[in-house]
Design brief:
Number of helices: 4
Low-confidence stretches: none
Radius of gyration: 46 Å
Order of helices and strands: HHHH
Structural class: mainly alpha
Mean pLDDT: 80
């Protein structure tokens, strides 16, 4: 390697040492080791170190085509130590501000969506449901009123007919009366349960 390539390699590795320190602090900040299971922490650690090694090697390959020298490790260590001594406290404060800013922005988005989308849709759906229920109750009330009116009209219409039937039946001979009574009882035995069920259902439906 030429001197310029070696110099660029040193600078790149010092920078990668600092970047590694920052990424390590970021990783520890989000990992929360105490609340996670050990096997999951171990798996995350292995993946983190593999990704860091691949990233460092990619930068090294871009600078000097992947030639590994002893001073590269010294440069990485110097960069990491410089970060720990000079930049760690500042970076951690900046990281916390970024995290809190993201959390505040997320809460703002949640409130915005809730107030502009969720709440209006909720009240609109409730209004539609109330209207549908009100229209349904009004429709059933109107139908019940018409049914009651029809029954009242039928009662008025058939009352004179019933009076005529009673008068005629009182004038009939006894043998014909008995025959009519037997026929009526048979028909009532077949039709009365059916009529009773229908009458009960109509009364329940009209009381709603």
């Amino acid at each position: 390697m030429t001197l310029s390539v070696q110099f660029y390699t040193m600078l790149a590795m010092v920078g990668m040492g600092s970047v590694f320190g920052a990424t390590l602090d970021t990783y520890n900040r989000f990992l929360n080791r105490k609340s996670r299971k050990r096997w999951l922490v171990f798996l995350n650690d292995v993946l983190f170190w593999i990704l860091q090694a691949l990233f460092i090697f990619y930068i090294l390959f871009s600078v000097n085509f992947g030639e590994v020298r002893f001073y590269i490790f010294i440069a990485l260590l110097c960069g990491f130590a410089g970060y720990q001594a000079l930049l760690k406290a500042l970076y951690l404060k900046l990281l916390e501000k970024i995290i809190q800013g993201c959390i505040s922005f997320y809460k703002f988005l949640v409130r915005l969506v809730t107030n502009l989308v969720y709440s209006p849709l909720k009240w609109l759906v409730m209004l539609l449901i109330s209207l549908i229920i009100g229209i349904g109750k009004g429709g059933w009330a109107v139908i019940g009123f018409f049914i009651k009116a029809i029954f009242a009209i039928l009662k008025i219409v058939f009352t004179p007919f019933l009076w005529v039937v009673k008068i005629i039946s009182s004038l009939l001979p006894k043998n014909i009366k008995k025959f009519v009574e037997k026929l009526y009882n048979k028909l009532a035995g077949y039709l009365f349960p059916f009529v009773k069920v229908i009458n009960t259902k109509l009364k329940k439906w009209l009381k709603r």
